[in-house]
Amino acid sequence: MAPVRIGLEHVRWASGHELPNFPEALLAIPLPAGGPAWDLWCAPGRDEGRFQVAFRIHHAVHDGMGAAHDLLTLLCHDVPPLMRPVERMRPTITGCVAVVKDLTRALGGRLKGRSDYLPELRDPVRWAWEEAPERIVQEAARSARCTVNDICLAAFAWALRLDASRTAAGDGARRRDFDAVIPMSIRDHRSRTVLGNQLVAYRLGLPVSAESLEEAVDRVVAQSQAARLHRRRDATRWLLELSPTPVGAWASRVMMGPCTAPMIASSLTFPAVGSCLGARLLGASMMYNLTGGMRSYLSFTRAQGVVRCGLAYRASWRANTIPAPWRQTLVQFAPQEVSSGTGTIPPKR
């Protein structure tokens, strides 16, 4: 692999005085103009001897999986491990029918959403996050007989319910279920490093109204298992490949637009890496800047034995307290012999 040359115009060092809320403050700073739409920021860490790195790239250039590969290529001392590709499978008729129904629902929500509340562009974007040891999350998933992403989504829905219960409006609108757009990578062996967006998506109802965490898990699992069983990823990819480019672009805008669902909920797993910029990687979070009226972006990023729940949201939502109960929910749901062991769960950040 040839050495990667990084132009200094794309690397910026941020002091605590310049960016007191790093990396949240980056969401208000535009990408460099007149050149490749990416940059790399470095800032002091929260603890002595540590530092933070933020890699930003325009979504038109790369999606999350492609950006993660770019980041590892830039930072890793050794040849970076490739991101795990997606295996192509034959689409099913049931999956294709579900895609059409999903698009119809999204279009209906888009038309209706034109009269619904959309955050003003002046409403600033905020960032909140929390992390949990990956082993705890994996044990919670095994206990629930589901995937790590399923248990993370269910725990987040339960955290939303707990947050609603602490507010005056807890018995009303804030306990209603709502749809989240779930992006799915279609990067296979041939396309895992190419430029552009290699994504499809489906809608999943977040069960905020569930009366228990177990019910929330069951409802999330039922939807995600149906998506996997009917090969929604492959059905959506196949239909997009058959469609003319303008039709596919229109369908993607309908599915991912802010009027379709109030939240995009993605997940990303980093491969194990060694030294990055001369230091050991401790964790990672995938962020997304909310544009065009988008309300919130949720990410679950797995890296170096840690799962981070990151939430970008409009300031009027006041959602900064939600990631903490997400973590506590997972710790409590894990088997007792795992969650109660001394030294296995680090203190809250």
TrEMBL record:
O-acyltransferase WSD1-like N-terminal domain span: 15-77
InterPro entries hit by this protein: O-acyltransferase_WSD1_N (IPR004255)
Domain of life: Bacteria
Protein name per the record: Wax ester/triacylglycerol synthase family O-acyltransferase
Organism of origin: Streptomyces chengmaiensis
